Amino acid sequence: MLVSYKWLSEYLDLSKISAKELSDQMSLTGIEVEGVEVPEEGLKKIVVGEVKECIPHPNSDHLSICQVDIGEEELSQIVCGAPNVKVGIKVIVALPGSRITGNQKIKKGKMRGEVSNGMICSLQELGYSDSVIPKAYSEGIYYMPQEAVNGEDVFSYLDMDDHIIELSITPNRADALSMRGVAYEVGAIYRQTPKFNDALLEEDTTETAADYISVEVEDPKDVPAYQIRIIKDVKIAESPLWLQTRLMNEGIRPINNVVDITNYILLLFGQPLHAFDYNKLDSQTILVRRGKADEEIVTLDGETRKLTNENIVITNGKVPVALAGVMGGADSEITEETTTVALESALFDSLSVRRTSKEFNLRSESSSRFEKGINHATIGEAGDVAAAMIAKLAGGTVVSDKAIGSELTLEDVVVSVTISRINEYLGTEMNQATVSEIFDTLGFEYELDHEKYTVTVPPRRWDITIEADLIEEVARIYGYDNLPSTLPKGETVAGSLTSGQLLVRRIKSLLEGCGASEAISYALTTEEKSRQFMMRESLTTSLQWPMSEERSVLRMNLISGLLDDVAYNVARKNTNVALYEIGRVFYQDNDPKKELPYEENHLGIVLSGNSVVKDWQTKEIPVDFYTIKGILEVLFDSVGIAYKISYEATKDNQELHPGRTALVKLNDTVIGFIGQVHPNVAKEYEIPETYAAELNLQAIIEEENDALVYQQISKFPAVSRDIALLVDETVTSQELVGTISKHAGKFLQTVHLFDVYQGDNIAEGKKSMAYSLTFVNAEATLVDEEINQSMEKVEKALVAEFNVTIR
């Protein structure tokens, strides 16, 4: 909300209060001030001029040589390129040595051989945005009023010497989305009662609105209040300068006198109005109803909108002529030919307006106010003041009475509070005189019974409904800075981490010890990336109003975000990347009873580049499947669940290499995957060969860990035996080790694979695998017979289960 200090001064005495002081006080009482801007700041030596002579430039087909009266004895010659420059107009002149927007300095010079003493300016060159400049002047210079005095600064004429205070209004204080609401707020701060100088309505009693139009509202729940005023014999023209500048300073483009008045009333009362060209309605009936399927309307922006039952529309009894509370129709807009105006003042259902504006992506000052709430007590008053202004500025005549479709019956909102309750909440020691004075300055009527206040809340403050609201009002006006401050009291206890938090910290330390760095990725991503590397089926969880398509869906994996990080590093020549991330993924089941997604804690790891960097004595070693598998095995061993983990080759994950990917199982339950990112996916991310693993960290945390049992180192020597096997290439080392461990007996301590060979002297479809078995007896020295018996059992089992050949 932009607030004009000059405009506000018309309702309150601010002669001893600067705009800076006012903004500071408003911030202290609960309405945040974003800043204060003075439009003329940075500009100088810009005056009113009058074009006395205008001839075409001899060396140009678009320039004109103008003789301009700038209040000096002699005329000043200025070369101008604006298409609308002509004799007899008052213009904005930047003198030599002046500064216009962008800190640009204007100098005396020549244009195509002709002297130019300054510049005739457009509003853009004074810092006005294209969106607020009247269309008639958007491509040329601006005309000043004829009564402007030549040579005087233009700033006061354009209200550029005003102070524009930008307020950040929270949804609960929608009453401050109007100048009257702000006037009441400032009046309460400085103990003043605002005085409004609204135009007085005079009606022509020879006719009534009913002679022109009848209004019917189909459902009063959709439209609790709706009324039409008729103003005849209007003459559409430009608004006076004071109204144009007031709107431009508030960020609204002037259109014509009637439309500008409706926008002025919107700012003054916070009440959206709409003006129809009565003759274009082609009917004497207004019917307000819901839209119908296949109905269409062309709105003021020229777009054709298809309507649904969700939209409230204004119709001429047959076809829609406006989207209620959002935008009018192009077929009934006010134009230069308009002579009779049908002025609508209404209250529409806020939820319906919100849905309609969202559906058509039409956010406007009007829809915003209907959504947040308007003062129900001034719906009719705002329309009356607007009609009076149209009669004054457009020469119209207001027909008596109104055509009413629905009316609101206002009921007083009464809230009670006691002085002791106020002091208990705020920690103050206010007395009756102080509290009474605050309610008086707020304009709240009240009855006092001992220390109990029964307050009748005025309709302009529809946000106040309960005791706590009244206490907040007292606190605001009393001054938050005047409330006593105390330190918190109470006992503190030592904090501690849960077992899960301790485990996560241990895993982080372990991974960093393995050379990985922690990454933190966005939880929001694209729908395509969210569905990559998924560990279970799930629906996507989409944002209703995403900031961008790249951040529109909650992730269902960690790897896609980590691959973005790898791509970022690789693009900056950091090719050796080892990253991990611990974070939540979000699964959505197809269950209408569950509104929120299920969150699951995951661990993601990615490796790319070299695990060992080349130096004078070492060759570089690129990362591979076993590099990342080794990190996982160290992790599982540290957590104490290594013996419960198994791996199973898979080709089901489309984003991973089909020959270098495995599922990770905990007690035969899949908890993750490990593998090489598929070359096609790596190409999409623009990264080199990369390996990734993702685990359900929640499952690891929930798994009961066995207590660590420390044993003494055996006094007796360990014995190692090697065994070489010729097996089918489809047999995995995991299967062989399982069989060896099962049949080798209780003295087996470790099984280590030290050689794998395929090639010469090995039959096709076969491979040679060599293991080293270590046996230890902590109570006695092992003898060959015991070892041989164990090895025989192992060999028989391997032959029986896998048809191996012992080499």
- Summed over residues and divided by their number, the pLDDT gives a mean of 92
Number of helices: 20
Query: Based on helices, strands and strand pairing, what is the structural class?
Result: alpha+beta
The total beta strand count reads: 42
| Cα gyration radius (Å) | 40 Å
With strands numbered from the N-terminus, the spatial order across the biggest sheet is: 28-31-32-38-37-36-35
Which of globular, elongated, flat, extended, rod-shaped describes the shape? elongated
Unreliable segments of 5+ consecutive residues? none
In helices, the fraction of residues equals 25-40%
What's the N-to-C terminus distance?
88 Å
- Largest β sheet strand count, sense and barrel closure: 7 strands, mixed
The percentage of residues in β strands lies in 25-35%
